[in-house]
Amino acid sequence: MALQLGKRSPRQDSRTYKLGRVLAVRQPVVPPSKDWSAGVPYQMWGNDRYGCCAFASYAALTATWTKAAQALVLLTTSTVLSAYAEVTGFDPQTGANDDGTILLDQLNHWRTHGLPRPGQPGRDYLTAYGIISPTDIQGIKRGICYLGGVLAGVQVPRGFMSLGLGETWDLSKLSGTDLEPEGGHAIALTGYTPAGVFFNTWGTRTFMPWDTLLKICDEAYGLLSRQNWLGIPGTSPNGENFDALLAEVRAA
């Protein structure tokens, strides 16, 4: 089975909210473990053929959020590829312009223009997003615990490309040329334990130790999704006041 990457180099924007600081004040208590990913039916979403990993992560986060807060929404592969096409100019019919995605471009488009979501009223609009330092383990834990997941960008070592689907990504087990980066990849971080983090890649719930994440992650974003993460009472599955958190993010 061919596995595709597709995350382009990070782009910095000084206007991006610094979400890690807000979460540290608003949600200071971080439980030892939190896992929203168990039992979520993740799929490949075309990432075995195209470099649509950023949008496979969109689908994985949507499934994770809605399964926890509402009722499962599982996007189709055609929807994921349509989203990839909207943001990057990729052509799903011919495979042309399969050049990957700058995550900041995806997030800005998702927030301002929305992404396709067939079978649902309107489009999917991201409420807000903010940077979490890729070395801030506590910030990443808070993003997963209180926001339902973190969108992360990693540089995948060559040795991980030959692992079986779902096999643990452990950098300590690689050596020599297997440690060399193969390319950038977007993954959805959706759970954690004291030992490491659960994430979705190539349709499979996978695990990596914290030390591995710290060494390969080059960008991370906490995402606030009013459409997907709030249940009928208007609060998240943890019961937080979403509007108060959003106000603090925008004031930061």
Features:
single chain; 252 residues; alpha+beta; Cathepsin B, Chain A; eight-stranded mixed beta sheet; globular
Tell me the number of strands: 8
CA(first)-CA(last) distance:
45 Å
> How confident overall, as mean pLDDT?
92
Number of helices: 8
Q: Work out the oligomeric state of the chains in this entry.
A: single chain
Taken from the alpha-carbon principal axes, the silhouette is: globular
Biggest β-sheet strands, sense, barrel: 8 strands, mixed
List the helices and strands and how they pair.
Elements lengths: L16 E2 H8 L7 E2 L17 H17 L7 H12 L14 H10 L15 E4 L5 H11 L2 E8 L23 E12 L3 E6 L2 E6 H7 E8 L1 H4 L12 H10 L1
Parallel strand pairs: 1-3
Antiparallel strand pairs: 2-5, 3-8, 4-5, 4-8, 5-6, 6-7
Helix pairs in contact: 1-5, 2-3
